[in-house]
Amino acid sequence: MTQYSLKLPPKLQQEAEKYATDQGITLDNLIIWAIAEKIGSLKQSLDNNNFPDIVYSRNQEGEMIPKLRGTNIQVKTLVVAVKNWQLTPQQVADEYGISEEKVNNVMAFYEQHRQEIDTAHREADLFEIATDKVLESIYNE
User: Fold this and answer.
1) How many Å separate Cα 77 from the centre of its chain?
2) φ, ψ at 2 (rounded to 5°)
3) H or E stretch including 109?
4) What does the DSSP assignment read for 21-47?
5) pTM higher than 0.70 for the full model?
């Protein structure tokens, strides 16, 4: 096995040593474990070869969100534009500065992942409604 010299920032090293001790392993083992977990998660990419324009990334809550590759545009944003606002794929493409083909690919992805996307969208709507109610109660006091 090849050895690597690794200089951790002192605070990170102290925290890592504490966790290693808590786990009953060496710092080296903790580092190997952490790297193995990271590589494993990278290998479990949710990207779908049938939809190369779509990638998943984590949002602030740690949820995996499908987005249009090379942009920060969420799939659900384009779906809402087509389904709720009733824009044509060309109008959506013009609005977001992307090709109509990409919009059509996003809609095809949506059709295959409808339940996942609709569920996430409903949960976000419920959160926004709850937040609005809290804000209303604060301002109406």
Assistant:
1) 14
2) -75, 140
3) helix 100-112
4) HHHTS-HHHHHHHHHHHHHHHHHT---
5) no
Q: What is the mean pLDDT of residues 39-55?
A: 73
Sole residue written with tokens 């409808």:
114
Neighbours of 70 (CB within 10 A): 10
pLDDT higher than 60, residue 132: no
Give dist(CA 49, CA 51) in Å, integer: 5
> Maximum CA pair distance of the chain?
66
pLDDT for the residue 1: 65
Structure token digits, residue 96: 């977001």
Placement of tokens 């959160």 in the chain: 127
What are the extents of the domains in the chain? 10-43, 73-139
**Phi, psi dihedrals of residue 69, rounded to the nearest 5°:** -55, 135
Looking at residue 115, its amino acid is Q
57: which residues sit within 8 A by CB, 6+ positions away?
64, 65, 67
pLDDT at residue 133 is higher than 70? no
